[in-house]
Amino acid sequence: MPVEVRIARILGPFLLAMGLTEPFAMPVFAAQTGPVVYLNGTLLFVAGVAILQAYSRWTQDWRSLVTLFGWVMTAAGLYRLAQPAAPQLDAGPGTDAVFLVLIAAGAVLTLKGYRRT
């Protein structure tokens, strides 16, 4: 099984779960302390770098989503490591759009990762 498919099988369900559950946890996120945000940044950074080490190719199909989310997770993790006391996102249309993107990308990656070949 190609590495991008193995990553899609992990990343797809993860993004779906994030996009579907985070809207309900917004009040919890707003109350997080710096150390918790820093820990989250560490996990995001390591996961992003791990994805990029395993697969980092820009193609003209769904596989670029794997690379894109590797870079997004790395950048988001680095930001949270550097700015753990920064305000967290508030609920609103922009945040809702982010959740919809996570759900859509998660659905695509899950379908591509688990489709019969």
Automatic annotation (TrEMBL):
Question: Does the keyword Membrane belong to this entry?
Answer: yes
Transmembrane regions listed in the UniProt entry? 7-30, 36-55, 62-82, 97-114
- Asked if Transmembrane helix is a keyword of the record, the answer is yes
Q: Which UniProt key words apply to this protein?
A: Membrane, Transmembrane, Transmembrane helix
Q: What is this protein called?
A: Uncharacterized protein
Q: Which organism is it from?
A: Phenylobacterium conjunctum
Lineage summary? Bacteria, Pseudomonadati, Pseudomonadota, Alphaproteobacteria, Caulobacterales
